[in-house]
Amino acid sequence: MPPIKIITLIDDDQVYVFLTKKMIEKTNLVKEVRVYENGLDAINFIKENMGNLDELPEIILLDLSMPIMDGWQFLKEFVKINPCIGKKITIYIHSSSTSLADIKRAKEIEEVSDYIVKPVSKSSLIELIKNFINPDDPLKLSKE
Amino acid sequence: MEKISDYKYVLDESSIIAITDQKGIITYANDNFCKISKYSAEELVGKDHRIINSGYHSSDFIKNLWSTIAKGKVWKGEIKNKAKDGTYYWVDTTIVPFLNSDRKPYQYIAIRSDITDRKRGEEELEDSLKEVSDYKYALDESAIVAITNQKGIITHVNDNFCEISKYTRSELIGQDHRIINSGYHSSDFIKNLWSTIAKGNVWKGEIKNKAKDGTYYWVDTTIVPFLNNDHKPYQYLAIRSDITDRKRGEEELKDSLKEVSDYKYALDESAIVAITNQKGIITHVNDNFCKISKYTRSELIGQDHRIINSGYHSSNFIKNLWSTIAKGNVWKGEIKNKAKDGTYYWVDTTIVPFLNNDRKPYQYLAIRSDITSRKEGEEQIRANNLKAIEYARILELKNTQLMDFCNIISHNLRAPLVNIAMLVDFIEQSQEDFERNDLLSKMRPVVSNLMDIFDGLVDSIQIRQDVEIKLDKILVEKCLGRVLKSFNTQIQKYDATIEVDFEKVPIIYFPTKYMESILSNLISNALKYKSPNRKPLISIKTEQKRMGTTLLSISDNGVGIDLELHKDNLFKIGKTFYKHPNAKGFGLFMTKTQVEAMDAEIWAESQLGKGTTFFIEFKSQSQS
């Protein structure tokens, strides 16, 4: 039984999603990878399953640039409903943007644990997941 | 004896004869007596003489008469008698007593002659003498009176003269009139006075005199020369009235008039002054007004004040001015006027209404000062400020565009590059052919996406760089026609309706290339995001905006955009707002780039489920 049940990818880039999903599956640390093409689909699912803890992900990797509802708009909606969710969901922004303005904006949102610039390497991904399992690990990614 | 009867005859003919007895009873009256007394002889004879008594004379007078004649003496005197009809007549009367042997009068003969006319003249003279003395009294009471001889030596003064001059009568009589000379009047004035009266004419004027104690007093003076038979003045009567108080008032008035005229002078020297009547017709202008307006005085007087109207101020401004002054209030402000030669000048203006007794303005005084150079300075500063604001705006726009560009690089170019890098990694690590082929097949679309984005960016940079692109005169309807050709298939397939209205603004100055691209993008969007529930209706029109700009709008009845969600990103690259297979998110970005490159503006209004309208405001077309 993998230590993490669900990782959710919110990203419209099909190639990237395909590759990242493959990479996560190879770690054997995650039971299921779910994918939403935009923020709206993701937030709707969470809203519908607020009490259904088994269906909610432990980790979300959130892209910023998406159609319909982008990463920022998703976060705005998520912050509103977060207190009502019966489970801690760790959100990482995962974007190809290296813009300092984006990174700064992400750090100002409490619900965002970190900003990971694409591409993510397999080793970083494993570290990220391990860090989630053992939060006291000194290797925990710092916000600073 | 004959001689005596002749006398009697003559006497009867010429005189009024009556005879009475010693008791006064008339025994005889001649014709003349009857004629003057208007009684007949029968009515008179046997009557007491008192029948003709007028009651005019005192009882002493009558007593004296009787005692004289009773003593046998002749009495002479003038008697006023009353005729039968009540009129009076005067008679010069001689009464001769006829004595008996005892030397006692036994009858009286009264010989009278009619002196009514003379007496009437005397009475009138008396009356007028009375009147004269009344006048003299009144004059003495009311006026300051002096008489001098022809040399100016005072021969008479009344009490008022003494009172005002503070001299006693004895100090004045015999003195030259110059004793009260104040030295105030010019020698010409004095000379004129003397030459007037010396010629026998009356002189009137106001004279300042000096009293004994050195104080001055003013008198309104009339000098009347009294002429002798040779028509030469032998003395002068001077009648004066004290006008010291009035003169003092006049002098104060003169002082304040002087002050007022000094003010007026100062104002005329320093300010631009005009007076208009209550209708705005110019009635007075000073030299400064003529100088600044470049009109002559005669060109301005009688004209409406609008002759210098520059047309610069709003009608509200002018209305406010007039309503203020029409209410009798002072108006202050700065006005731009137009001179005769068409140049403009600015004046700081104060308009003061002059009110009549009904508190209504009957004329307006406008005092202005030239502030043209200050205003020009202000206008320069304002223009500079506007320029600075414009520069700042352009700079801000450039900065925003630069930020946008950084974001485009960061978001849109980096993403496909990341994909390529990852795909390469995966391919390298893959040991299985089928997996490797699968990965390779994913490479092609990423590369072509990268190419598209890259081309788009190059285009957009070109647009921004192409500041020299020239404006074309675009007939909007024609341009739209060309664009719509490429949508024919879709329009037919969807049974779409295109409404146009370019009546108001048929022509827009803009690069044709951009206009076609913009219309193409917006129509493409409108068709792409049509509502599944209804046939597409696209309405395209132009209209004139207030500041001379042209507004082009393209409305559809499609699915609409959630602007709440997308307002910040509407025109950004790679943004699509719908799950649509052909949504690449480049159209609006390019449209905005083209619009902004030409200093125009684009925005959208939308309601989900109802439709979207895009607006493009083209800058003022006048100078283009």
UniProtKB/TrEMBL annotation, chain A:
It comes from the Bacteria. Keywords: Phosphoprotein. It comes from Zunongwangia pacifica. InterPro entries: CheY-like_superfamily, Sig_transdc_resp-reg_receiver, TCS_response_regulator. Gene3D superfamilies: 3.40.50.2300. The modification 4-aspartylphosphate is found at D63. This is Response regulator. The keyword Repeat does not apply. One of its GO terms (biological process) is phosphorelay signal transduction system. The lineage of its organism: Bacteria, Pseudomonadati, Bacteroidota, Flavobacteriia, Flavobacteriales. Residues 6-133 form the Response regulatory domain.
TrEMBL record, chain B:
Keywords: Kinase, Phosphoprotein, Transferase. InterPro entries: HATPase_C_sf (IPR036890), HATPase_dom (IPR003594), His_kinase_dom (IPR005467), HisK_dim/P_sf (IPR036097), PAC (IPR001610), PAS (IPR000014), PAS-assoc_C (IPR000700), PAS-like_dom_sf (IPR035965). Its EC number is 2.7.13.3. SUPFAM superfamilies: ATPase domain of HSP90 chaperone/DNA topoisomerase II/histidine kinase (SSF55874), Homodimeric domain of signal transducing histidine kinase (SSF47384), PYP-like sensor domain (PAS domain) (SSF55785). The keyword Phosphoprotein applies. It comes from Zunongwangia pacifica. PROSITE patterns: HIS_KIN (PS50109), PAC (PS50113), PAS (PS50112). This is histidine kinase. Residues 408-622 form the Histidine kinase domain. Residues 3-60, 145-188 form the PAS domain. It comes from the Bacteria.
